[in-house]
Amino acid sequence: MHPRLATLRRIARAPKGLIGLLLVGFMMILALFGAWLAPQDPYAQNFMATLQPPSAEHWFGTDQLGRDVFSRILLGARTSIGIGVGGVAVAFVIGVPLGLAAAYLRGTFDSLLMRGVDILLSFPDIVFALAIVAIMGPSTLNVILAVGIVSVPVFIRTTRAVAMSTLAEPFVEGSVSLGCSPLRVMGRHVLPNMGGILVTLCSLLFASTLLNASGLSFLGLGTQPPEPEWGTMLGESRSYIRTHPYMATFPGLFLALSALGFNLLGEELRNIYDPTSARRRRGQGLLARLLNGGRALPVPRETAAQARARAETVGDAAAIGRDLEISYLTDKGPLPAVRGVDFALRRGRTLAVVGESGSGKSTLLRAVATLLPRGQALVSGGSLRIGTEEVSALSGAQVQALRRQHIGVVFQDAASALNPVMTVGAQLAEAITSGRRMSPAEVRDRSIALLKAVQIADPESRLDAWPHQFSGGMKQRIVIAIALAQEPELLLADEPTSALDVTIQQQILTLLRQMQKERDMAMMLVTHDLGLVARYADDVAVIYAGRIVETGPVEEVFRRPRHPYTRALAASTPKLRHGGGTRMLPAIDGEPPMLGQLPPGCAFAPRCARSGGRAVCTTRAPELTRCGKADVACHFPDETESLHAA
Ligand SMILES: Nc1ncnc2c1ncn2[C@@H]1O[C@H](COP(=O)(O)OP(=O)(O)OP(=O)(O)O)[C@@H](O)[C@H]1O
């Protein structure tokens, strides 16, 4: 069955939806054909038959000029419904792009816009609309503009709020990490995912727009006589409301029924189109298709000269951080989350970044992914080179192109890393075609090859499947396929398996490792789990309170951990603890320091069993210094300490 017919059937199956559909359908027929259906001339005056009650000849009676009210109601539907639709369209066309822009750009634009919205929302709608019509003059067009403009703030606020939460979804970050243009991200991911909410908003605002417009017409500021419009007819009935109540009853009834119909229909549509609903969404691509007409311009890929320069300047490093500092911008000022970090991500090797929660691992990974949340965090010092490029020297578009060409990102939660309202094939195609033109057949072949590479069985038939039809492990494989779509040199994985069970965890990490080796990529793996580091990484960086406290090849660091924090972490990891056994594992006493409240000297000193309160530990931060094959930031790297059991 055609998707639209199926949607209609589903609406009709719910009682509220059926009533809404019938009412809206009825009003639309009136709006389109009312003029032809009118049994009498709606403009013909008859002073011999004024203010007649309903009768066989005049079903809804006659007005003060003897005109047939029924015929005027039928003809008036065109203007009344037209004003409602027009008002909502004006509000949509202005409000939605502004809301999206505010969500995307944040910063000053967002603050100014939101203050403006607050001011506008502090006026009652009708007063604001009255002021606009008073300035522009009474006419149907001006009423449409006025009722549309007063609804703009609601559209801006709702669109901004929903877009912000959608933009924070990992599948959008994934798309941004592929270097998709803002227009494409909005049209492809954000708008379709807020379609249900926008449809609901349109229907709710249709009702209030209709009523606001009728209010203006009632006051004589809207559609001008002799043109029939339900609000104007209500206004004209004011003087006769006690003696001839039917004059107000019929236009009022039609207004109420149309508002009710649109509300009921909107609610049912929301249930269907809401992507979070358990029911599968159909026909979801409309907004996306409308907005995705313009493709991102292809950005030239790296030239041979650039590739040579890269090889000469950075050797086998796909990314290098030097004294890197990253701060979050908070009300209390910038708070450093990553403090003076040095690292190199080398081709063919995996660097695992480990540490407790809040130590700055994800912040570091996001910085390398060039995905720090805009307006909330920034690289506040040091240098970050990706390939041959110093990231801070690039424009926004260049960073986007760099991300697309060099970086693949795999986030923690595969379920939310995939867009629930796009088929797997469509998401792969988007990743593959980002920044380059390919024929549909090439895209399909490449999609199939990628799915095969991540060991998805029967990839041809899986392209048309939806994310919810895959298990967690399969979804993560698809996320990896998407990350690999542009053949990145750098693969960044942030806790890629923490949402999966242990068996699947191993499969996914083995796959990542295999992909990384086969494609000679550099990989950064962020994890809490030292057991995984031991099995799947080449190098490790142990991070504490935003600083690397120990780093080196995995065998070296695990065979002989020198920093007391690394030793404590290793001792609290069952498989790494010397001798294993069933004894309760030691925990690290105390809490990591809060951002912006770092102790003087070594940040680990207050929890350190080795320091023993020695002055140098509490006054001077230790530098990373070479010890054997590793680098350790401890004043006493060769001492040992007794670990406290929990
Ligand atoms: N948007 C933000 N604004 C302010 N502070 C933030 C923000 N995001 C993270 N932080 C803080 O930055 C520090 C580092 O956070 P980050 O997420 O990088 O740690 P993590 O080691 O990855 O932790 P986890 O393992 O729990 O993800 C934490 O103290 C965190 O509270």
Quick one: biggest sheet?
8 strands, mixed
What topology, given as strand order, has the largest sheet?
A: 6-7-8-3-9-10-12-11
Taking the alpha carbons of the first and last residues, their distance comes to: 64 Å
- Ligand types: adenosine-5'-triphosphate
Average of the residue pLDDT scores: 82
> Could you please say which CATH topology of the largest domain applies here?
MetI-like fold
CATH superfamily of the largest domain: MetI-like
What structural category arises from helix and sheet content?
alpha/beta
Radius of gyration: 32 Å
* Beta-strand residue fraction: 5-15%
CATH classification class of the largest domain: Mainly Alpha
- Taken together, the total number of domains comes to 3
CATH architecture designation of the largest domain = Orthogonal Bundle
Number of helices, where a helix is a run of at least 4 consecutive DSSP H or I residues? 25
Strand segment count:
12
Oligomer: single chain
Which stretches of 5+ consecutive residues score pLDDT under 50? 274-314
Principal-axes shape call: elongated
Protein name: Peptide/nickel transport system permease protein
Main location: membrane
Organism: Salipiger marinus
Membrane topology: Peripheral membrane protein; Multi-pass membrane protein
Can you lay out the helices and strands and say which pair or pack?
Blueprint: H1 3-13, H2 15-37, H3 69-105, H4 107-121, H5 125-136, H6 140-167, H7 170-177, H8 182-193, H9 195-218, H10 230-236, H11 246-273, H12 285-291, H13 304-314, E1 317-330, E2 333-346, E3 350-354, H14 361-368, E4 377-386, E5 389-390, H15 396-406, E6 407-410, H16 414-417, H17 424-433, H18 440-453, H19 459-462, H20 472-484, E7 490-494, H21 502-518, E8 522-527, H22 530-536, E9 539-544, E10 547-553, H23 554-559, H24 564-571, H25 615-619, E11 625-627, E12 630-632
Parallel strand pairs: 3-8, 3-9, 6-7, 7-8
Antiparallel strand pairs: 1-2, 1-4, 4-5, 9-10, 10-12, 11-12
Helix pairs in contact: 1-2, 2-3, 2-11, 3-4, 3-6, 3-9, 3-11, 4-6, 5-6, 6-8, 6-9, 7-8, 8-12, 9-10, 9-11, 10-11, 17-18, 17-20, 18-20, 20-21
The structure holds adenosine-5'-triphosphate.
Residues 328, 330, 337, 355, 357-363, 373, 376, 595 line the site of adenosine-5'-triphosphate.
Transmembrane segments: 18-38, 81-105, 117-135, 141-158, 196-223
InterPro entries: AAA+_ATPase, ABC_Ni/Peptide_Import, ABC_transporter-like_ATP-bd, ABC_transporter-like_CS, MetI-like, MetI-like_sf, Oligopep_ABC_C, OppC_N
Subcellular location: Cell inner membrane; Cell membrane
